[in-house]
């Protein structure tokens, strides 16, 4: 799992522009929704007038303006001092004025879609001569003419995943552009990549001019991440794809292979000189991208980016942009973050976003360790290097360090220069994760003459993220690493051998929640369950940038690469949202999200409960409603709909004020527990709480009867009234109440998990329940 890093650099390092050294920073001044009666020029003039009220001259006010948001979002980004921003924040019609902090990103496919049951035979459909018809794919025409916009690090247009052979004309509703720049011209857009833009005004205001040796000043992807997520959403079917070494061989395809793609490049490298030390995404740039995506005519937006910390709505560019997208019935899918398994780390937690956690698939890259005591330990790797088929001496890294290396907690982590060639030459070494890179540990073992490496996870890093090491190596879980360590310490002559790696399909049980996937509860909206759902996000193979010098396989150019993170899970859900939009073009954003959430499962492929990588039974704070099930999502039977106005009322109740000039906060705002959300979360229940929900019949021919069943959370009793709902036609709505009673058996602050479901003999619409006592 790669994480995007954000580094604060001092003005003394002479890398910041002068504007920031005089205490000016990028601020977003948010004015809410446009009234709809002004031209773009009139909007920009209004924004200039706000700036002129705090600047000395008109010239200064115009020079300070970075973005004027004109399509849907009313606001602007400008270089301001804290005092100037404070003055603006107090003006009439200004919802908020907040610092535009860069974001850290939690930063298929030959297997994940098969595992999800989507592709019977991967292909673009019979008209293109490939693949069999398959449920939702056939009904959705493989996503034909649905437009998905991605906020990411760009796209590599030459990838076979993005060819446009057989595609029809660009949809007439498309209003976007193909922005030219470094190594990117209009010819790089086609009938597949129909639009591409890039945004770096906010980035350059903070970090100075882009170092073009680190990235392209254009929509072209230098990193790989953007191409990876784009091909996961809508990559064309490409046969005989495999990672180096032949791993994961098969046909690569996105979930919706005929959707049109639009790239909005918003993330850029940070670092000194020619060395990029990570990437960052500025809020002002992202808000401009979302505003353009709305104006361009996208149907779905996929954002594999998240803030490093919890941000309130008034200061959250992604949340603000997504709210305006939702008004236009654009589905916004966002990654949950990679800060798990720590509680309350979930990001992108607004109720108008579908927030996606990460879990594994049933594919493994098996490379077991056979110990000298005839015990075989399960391991995984992507290395192509092999050892001879015999036992080698096995040592613990902490026992074979150089004399000058302290015997402390890092001694066994195979850090650069730590291992003694005299003590470990020709041996297999057990190293532990912690400080340093995984690849770097293998390089140190090879430098010191080791024959091979077993890389053990620490208790805090228990997700198996796989690498192509520079020598024979395999990765094992924390528990298995402890077993190997104990064997070394208890044996006079410990030995082991490493089996060559291979791809194994249908490993059971699956999925397993990724340890890194961020967990609930939701810090911003405690009574809205987040994440909403989990999808494949571990060791996903997808398209890559051939300019990238960073991959699981070293520095050589790759066409396809493995990546892990909630960044990889997010586009899986965006793809299914696109297919649902193709089948049900009139459905609201909330209805699409509801269909995905209520058809999820909390069971594995063996029918057992989904677990975490540490072996514990997972819960709704890990996976929301459960694991994505595409073949059910397009026909959920019932949906929980919600409007833009409902979200505005919720913001009033949450203290975020009025964001639309055409809407006035009611005297009695909606509470978050009463929002018509497809899950139920209520905290601090003293005795009992009753909330209301409304379902819309979207299944069958119309006439149908649904009955409810309840799985009570421990220590609580849940009652549904009425227990039976009768519908006479499609589109009919029925209202019901849910009463949750605290039986006084749970500890204060201790969460309990359950569910309630509506069934008609064909459909099952299940909603998770999360409650806690006062």
Automatic annotation (TrEMBL):
Residues 674-771 form the Subtilisin-like protease fibronectin type-III domain. Residues 214-226 have a biased composition (Basic and acidic residues). The active site is at residues 152, 225, 567. Residues 1-21 form the signal peptide. The keyword Signal applies. Residues 214-237 are annotated as: Disordered. InterPro entries: PA_domain, Peptidase_S8/S53_dom, Peptidase_S8/S53_dom_sf, Peptidase_S8_Ser-AS, Peptidase_S8_subtilisin-rel, Peptidases_S8_3, S8pro/Inhibitor_I9, S8pro/Inhibitor_I9_sf. It comes from the Eukaryota. It holds the Pfam family fn3_6. Keywords: Hydrolase, Protease, Serine protease, Signal. Residues 26-102 form the Inhibitor I9 domain. Residues 401-483 form the PA domain. Residues 227-237 have a biased composition (Low complexity). Belongs to the peptidase S8 family. This is Subtilisin-like protease SBT5.6. It comes from Kingdonia uniflora.
């Amino acid at each position: 799992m790669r994480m995007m890093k954000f580094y604060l650099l001092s003005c003394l390092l002479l890398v910041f522009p002068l504007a920031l050294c005089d205490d000016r920073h990028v601020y977003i001044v948010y004015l809410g929704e446009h009234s709809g009666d002004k031209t773009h020029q009139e909007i920009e003039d209004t924004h200039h007038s706000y700036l002129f009220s705090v600047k000395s001259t008109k010239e200064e006010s115009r020079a300070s303006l970075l973005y004027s948001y004109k399509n849907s979002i009313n606001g602007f980004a400008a270089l301001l001092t804290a005092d100037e921003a404070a003055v603006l924040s107090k003006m009439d019609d200004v919802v908020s004025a907040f610092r535009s902090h860069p974001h850290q990103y939690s930063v298929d496919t030959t297997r994940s879609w098969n595992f999800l049951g989507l592709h019977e035979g991967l292909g673009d459909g019979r008209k293109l001569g490939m693949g069999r018809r398959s449920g939702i794919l056939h009904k959705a025409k493989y996503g034909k003419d649905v437009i998905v916009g991605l906020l990411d690090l760009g796209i590599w247009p030459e990838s076979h995943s993005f060819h446009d052979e057989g595609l029809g004309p660009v949809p007439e509703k498309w209003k976007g552009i193909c922005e030219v720049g470094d190594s990117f011209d209009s010819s790089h857009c086609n009938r597949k990549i129909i639009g591409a833009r890039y945004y770096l005004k906010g980035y350059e205001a903070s970090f100075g001019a882009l170092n073009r040796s680190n990235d392209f000043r254009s929509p072209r992807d230098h990193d790989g991440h953007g191409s990876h997520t784009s091909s996961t959403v809508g990559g064309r079917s490409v046969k005989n794809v495999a990672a180096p070494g032949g791993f994961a061989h098969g046909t690569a395809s996105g979930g919706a292979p005929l959707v049109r793609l639009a790239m909005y490049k918003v993330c850029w490298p940070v670092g000194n000189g020619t060395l990029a030390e990570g990437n960052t995404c500025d809020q002002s740039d992202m808000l401009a991208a979302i505003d353009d995506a709305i104006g361009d005519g996208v149907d779905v937006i996929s954002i594999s980016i998240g803030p490093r910390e919890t941000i309130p709505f008034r200061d959250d560019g992604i949340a603000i942009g997504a709210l305006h997208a939702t008004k236009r019935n654009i589905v916004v899918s966002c990654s949950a973050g990679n800060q798990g398994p720590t509680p309350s780390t979930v990001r992108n937690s607004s109720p108008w976003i579908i927030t996606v956690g990460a879990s594994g698939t049933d594919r493994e890259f098996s490379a077991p360790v056979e110990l000298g005591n005839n015990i075989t330990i399960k391991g995984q790797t992507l290395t192509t290097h092999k050892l001879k088929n015999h036992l080698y001496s096995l040592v613990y890294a902490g026992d074979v360090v150089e004399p000058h290396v302290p015997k402390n907690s890092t001694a066994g982590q195979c850090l650069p220069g730590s291992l003694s060639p005299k003590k470990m030459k020709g041996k297999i070494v057990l190293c532990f994760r912690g400080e340093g890179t995984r690849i770097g540990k293998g390089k140190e073992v090879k430098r010191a003459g080791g024959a091979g490496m077993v890389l053990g996870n620490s208790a805090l890093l228990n997700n198996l993220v796989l690498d192509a090491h520079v020598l024979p190596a395999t990765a094992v879980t924390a528990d298995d690493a402890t077993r190997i360590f104990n064997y070394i310490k208890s044996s006079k002559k410990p030995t082991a051998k490493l089996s060559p790696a291979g791809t194994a399909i249908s490993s059971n049980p699956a999925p397993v929640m990724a340890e890194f996937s961020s967990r609930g509860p939701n810090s911003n909206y405690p009574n809205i369950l987040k994440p909403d759902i989990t999808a494949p996000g571990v060791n996903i193979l997808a398209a890559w940038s051939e300019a990238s010098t960073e991959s699981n396989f070293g520095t050589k150019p790759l066409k396809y690469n493995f990546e892990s993170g909630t960044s990889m899970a997010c586009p899986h859900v965006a793809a299914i949202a696109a297919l649902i939009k193709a089948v049900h073009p009139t459905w609201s954003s909330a209805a699409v999200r509801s269909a995905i959430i209520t058809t999820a499962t909390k069971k594995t492929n063996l029918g057992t409960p989904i677990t975490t990588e540490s072996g514990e039974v997972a819960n709704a704070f890990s996976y929301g409603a459960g694991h994505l099930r595409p073949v059910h999502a397009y026909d959920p039977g019932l949906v929980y709909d919600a409007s833009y106005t409902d979200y505005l009322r919720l913001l009033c109740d949450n203290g975020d004020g009025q964001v639309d000039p055409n809407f006035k906060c009611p005297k009695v705002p909606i509470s978050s527990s009463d929002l018509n959300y497809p899950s139920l979360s209520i905290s601090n229940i003293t005795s009992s709480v009753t909330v209301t929900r409304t379902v819309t019949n979207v299944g069958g021919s119309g006439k149908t009867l649904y009955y409810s069943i309840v799985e009570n959370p421990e220590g609580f009793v849940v009652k549904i009234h009425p227990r039976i709902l009768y519908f006479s036609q499609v589109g009919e709505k029925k209202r019901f109440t849910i009463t949750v009673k605290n039986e006084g058996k749970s500890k204060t602050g201790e969460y309990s998990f359950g569910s309630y479901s509506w069934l008609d003999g064909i459909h099952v619409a299940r909603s998770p329940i999360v409650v806690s006592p006062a």
